Amino acid sequence: MANPQEVRPFSGQVALVTGASKGIGAATAGALAAAGAHVILTSRDAKALEAVEEAIYAAGGTATIAPVDLADPEGAARLAAGIGQRWDALDILVLGAAYFPQLTPVTQLDSREFNKTLTLNLMAQQAMLGHCDRMLKASKDARIIALTSSVGQTPRAFWGAYAASKAALEALLVAYAEENRAIGHIRVAIVDPGATRTAMRARAYPGEDPASVKPPEAVAERLVALLGEPFLTGHRERVNQSA
What we know:
Layout: E1 14-18, H1 23-34, E2 38-42, H2 46-58, E3 62-65, H3 75-86, E4 92-95, H4 111-137, E5 142-147, H5 160-180, E6 186-192, H6 199-204, H7 216-227, E7 235-238
Parallel strand pairs: 1-2, 1-4, 2-3, 4-5, 5-6, 6-7
């Protein structure tokens, strides 16, 4: 358990992590809480969020759960409104929620599946930026990390839907970073976690030995370290393998 007298780097800061119920999101939320941030945990799965919250408190951190389906057109608005009632500023935003569609040829994409992919991986992310913008601008040093995939810049056969959503997300984040470069204290980083032991990875590579890729905690460690660094807005990086 953390020493209550210990000075932690993100003490007094508020962080919001989407997709926080499992995998990289849950690990990042725990690492941020261990570093002193009060972490707002959001995803659709309230029960899973409660488990993450309990683990954070058991380790000496603090968190608040906010179950929301970001694919709901009003989800981001409700989430931001609830946060804004309690906190004036948002210091850290980690955009980790994503949907992984079936791998299929571009010519055979199911319109409903493609729409679901773009709704969560792109439209919901824009909604989060739009509704959290005021709180981010109220922070003295707001930082945003958006998780991407290598296929966003280097598409692969059958990955067209997911690749398109991530490429569009990257363009959106870079534009937002440029819009705020000279007028505020918001810095944006785009991070490719690389091969990581997650449920999404297992769906994409069902025959892969999970032990052959790094755990979510390795990515979380790097994300939290990056958030403490004076990175320039628009920063990009890939988390190296560390199984």
